[in-house]
Amino acid sequence: MDTIVCDWQIVTVKDNGQVLWGICVEDKSFRFGNGDYICTSKLVEIKPKKNLIKTASGSIYKVVGDGKKAIVELCDFELLRNGFNPQQIKALKTTSHRH
Q1: Rg of the chain's alpha carbons, rounded to an integer?
Q2: Of 63, 67, 74, 81, whose CA is between 20 and 30 Å from 5?
Q3: Rounded CA separation 36/49 (Å)
Q4: Residue 92 in contact with residue 84, Cβ under 8 Å?
Q5: How far apart (Å, rounded) are the C-alpha atoms in residues 50 and 61?
Q6: Residue span of the structural domain in which 57 resides
Q7: Measured between alpha carbons, how far is 35 from 4 in angstroms, rounded to an integer?
Q8: Mind listing the pLDDT tens digit for each residue in 21-80?
Q9: Domain count, the chain
């Protein structure tokens, strides 16, 4: 496993499976810098006792600390891929509905 992630969340994208969203602590593959957000491809395996998560693209992530679970609509997936966490997406939707 090359990438360690903190402040992580298992995000269910409605009608499209689950992804891992978190902040990079260390990445030996040099795809991510320390502190960068990560939004993975679809999850295929979660090993909670080992804190390991495997994605459809074959990447394995080690998660540290307590994680959260969240749900986003498929239409909001691009926001997730662009760095917004699920709580920020929810806040944006709440704000945009007030106007």
Answers
A1: 14
A2: 74
A3: 25
A4: yes
A5: 11
A6: 3-98
A7: 11
A8: 999 999 998 999 999 999 999 999 999 999 999 999 999 999 999 999 999 999 999 999
A9: 1
